[in-house]
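Q: Structure tokens for this one, please.
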Amino acid sequence: MSKAESLGLEFRRIPDQLDDVHEAAISDSHGEFLSGIYRWVSPHFSRQIGGGKVLVDGAESRNLFETIDRSVFERMQGNASYRPPNVLEWSARHGFDWENCDATTDAHTENPIVCTF
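A: Here is the predicted structure, written as tokens:
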């Protein structure tokens, strides 16, 4: 950011850099919706990551710029009970080593997404 500022770019605020975001409590929004009643009438949905093309109203669609945030991998590495099934399935399908990943990752190419401030 200092390089951008030295070139004349002004910032209204500096973005938070949360190194411990992967340790934050997880909210069960599905279980809490409508005071918990919703979970009894609607099963939990875990969508496929990087699944390619899908049909939406009869037309082909694809998620573009789909990423998995580094905090997901950091939480998985530090918490043995946190294993999102769709992330495990994606990792197995792509032969991706989530145990050694420290970057936000493109879900289609498995390449790290590097952002510097």
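A few notes: The chain is about 25% helix and 15% strand. The helical segments are 2-6, 29-32, 38-41, 70-78, 85-94.
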